[in-house]
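okkk here we go again. third time trying to get the fe (ii) ion bound version out, last two times i messed up the smiles copy paste (missing a bracket lol). double checked this time i swear
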Amino acid sequence: MSEVILVVDDDTANLMLAKKILGGDFRIAAANSGEAACRYLESNRPDLVLVDINMPDMDGFELVAKMKANPQWKSISVIFLTADKNEETEIRCFQAGAVDFVGKPFLPEILTSRVKRTLELERYRNSLEKMVEEQAQQLTGAFRRISEMQEHVIVGMANLIESRDGSTGKHVKNTQTYVRMIAQELERRGLFSEVLTGDYIEKLCKAAPLHDVGKIQVPDSILQKPGRLTAEEYEIMKSHTTCSSAILDEIIGDVEEEDYIRLAKDVAMHHHERWDGKGYPMGLKGEEIPLGARIMALADVFDALYEERCYKPPMRPIEKIYEILAEGRGTQFDPVITDVFLSLNEPLWEYLEHRN
Ligand SMILES: [Fe+2]
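finally!!
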């Protein structure tokens, strides 16, 4: 199907002439005023617009300014038609955004070749834009696939490590979910807003599964011991925090964004710190403990109590766990985060009911 050219001229003789010259190669739509052209453009998209400059009411420059201000119309190519072929008009035409201009009266060969050249450029531009868009889509898709693959590898690795301590294999997913719930609720209430941005929450959720990777260096005999750990065994157990941080440096230190690595290491290193400073490995106190680690502490302890382990049954009813967490408010846990966790209610219960 041939291309459509809209010719805008208040002089009917000129419209007829343009139609005669171009009608053999193109479909011609005619408008005898700027207003009529706008009405046409409301429901049609020509491939090119030829605009007379001197028209009553809305002149050619005004029409083109309107077209350039309209997101739907601004990419349509425009050629001005003018009887005053002087430099000043020529400059104004290009400044207005026209790709070319043709002097009147038209010489058929000149009008045809200018129109054909403009449409050819238009075709190149369109195919180039399409190509760039397709390639951008391919790149976005590839980037998304790599990110997803990386996420699966991280979660898979964390699951493997977690499965050694006799958990049911859900700890990674559960804690990640609780971390997201807590962080989103904190954000909704405008708490810790200087740190807790949408980007921070995404990175924190991606970092959460890595919090215990250092357990890979803790022997099974300690991880799976049903009874109390000896002082020496407890020291080894505690070292999983510093080991996690070191492992993260080693495996993702060179490939991930700096912000994310810092957050992942903070969570891994400090999720067993206590608000009162009696935790490990560094005995940090209160807000010295990084926010992500304070959130993870709640998620981690809740899951440890709620789920079954090979050495202990799940704790029920849930109120019993709530009591333990409430007792830890301001001693073991950040009081604000504890309050938020204890008020999650519906979304938490919903998850607990349907998780698998
Ligand atoms: Fe841990």
